[in-house]
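Query structure, 371 tokens:
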């Protein structure tokens, strides 16, 4: 499938967009080579680090690759649109339709601009997004409780220590009672990411910083990452819970491992174990990196589930495809079987496809209200 997409991309962009342009061969050939090189970004990433998920290039090179890949994809879609439009007009008029140079250059420029905007949106330090959630059974002691969610940081050379410091500064300034991180902290080994992730040690809130792993933690040395994240001061909830107390009232924060665990010989997500021994009358907030098991969480009495993983679909239109792979959940709030599920668009993004259009990154501050 990947090979067919690659062939389609090259056929449309090189043969159907580039080659008909009235440029000399000395220009077309280098442009064609550049298109082929850019289309193999993930291959070069794997050569650079041994993993397609962790491109170990200077940040400007990663930005350039993402812009180029985005430009190629948008250009392919635009050129296909031009071709289809020309075909329809040709059939209606029953005569050939020529796509002019101006039209080709216009779609090329538009694709390049859209990609540049998409990359800029992806790499910003996101603003705080406020969400109000009414929770049945929440004690008045917790009414107005502020919980800040970070998700999908993907700390890498694209999202390095300086970017992480900006996120931490904004998170700390949000004045949350609790900070949670719903997985995908990194792409790379502890040795590769030690400096990039160091700023997370400065995260602080009155009730601490709680977190669960995402699927990307399993792609590297999972056990080493869990030790390192704990050493930074994050409490990792691997199929367990903690209880926050205000007077005689309780709020349970539970966390499960990611479903990717089953492929790596480590404990799979176990919500029953995570909830074992909890105060039975206390509402439960569940941290689960992937949103797909929300209905099962509802059956076990969870009041609010916070997830990420989908990146919100990244681009309007593409989000519908991403939703199909996540049981319909892709971005924002859902009411599922009596619980509230919130799927974060993500704070960062995987550096292999770092574009956002119409799906902004976020740091989400929840205001819990008694129902």
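Result returned for the query:
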């Amino acid at each position: 499938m990947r090979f067919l997409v690659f062939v389609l991309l090259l056929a449309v962009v090189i043969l159907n967009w580039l080659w008909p342009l009235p440029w000399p061969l000395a220009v077309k050939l280098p442009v064609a080579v550049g298109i082929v090189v850019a289309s193999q970004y993930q291959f070069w990433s794997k050569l650079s680090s041994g993993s397609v998920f962790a491109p170990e290039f200077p940040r400007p090179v990663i930005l350039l690759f993402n812009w180029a890949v985005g430009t190629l994809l948008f250009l392919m879609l635009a050129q296909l649109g031009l071709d289809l439009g020309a075909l329809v007009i040709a059939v209606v008029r029953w005569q050939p339709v020529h796509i002019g140079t101006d039209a080709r250059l216009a779609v090329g420029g538009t694709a390049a601009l859209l990609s540049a905007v998409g990359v800029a949106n992806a790499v910003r330090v996101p603003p705080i997004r406020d969400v109000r959630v009414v929770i049945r059974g929440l004690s008045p002691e917790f009414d107005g409780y502020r919980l800040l969610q970070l998700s999908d940081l993907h700390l890498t050379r694209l999202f390095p220590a300086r970017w992480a410091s900006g996120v931490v500064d904004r998170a700390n300034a949000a004045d949350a009672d609790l900070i949670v991180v719903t997985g995908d902290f990194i792409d790379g080994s502890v040795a590769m990411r030690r400096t990039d992730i160091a700023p997370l040690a400065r995260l602080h809130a009155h009730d601490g910083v709680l977190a669960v792993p995402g699927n990307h933690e399993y792609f590297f040395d999972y056990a080493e990452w869990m030790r390192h994240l704990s050493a930074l001061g994050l409490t990792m909830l691997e199929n367990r819970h903690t209880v926050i107390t205000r007077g005689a009232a309780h709020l349970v924060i539970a966390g499960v491992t990611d479903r990717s665990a089953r492929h790596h010989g480590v404990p799979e997500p176990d919500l029953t174990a995570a909830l074992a021994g909890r105060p039975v009358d206390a509402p439960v907030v569940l941290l689960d990196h992937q949103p797909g098991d929300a209905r099962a969480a509802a059956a076990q009495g969870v009041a609010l589930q916070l997830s990420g993983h989908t990146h919100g679909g990244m681009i309007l239109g593409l989000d519908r495809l991403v939703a199909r792979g996540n049981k319909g959940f892709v971005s924002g709030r859902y009411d599922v079987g009596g619980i509230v599920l919130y799927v974060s668009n993500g704070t960062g993004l995987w550096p292999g496809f770092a574009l956002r259009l119409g799906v902004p990154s976020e740091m989400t501050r929840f205001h819990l209200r008694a129902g």
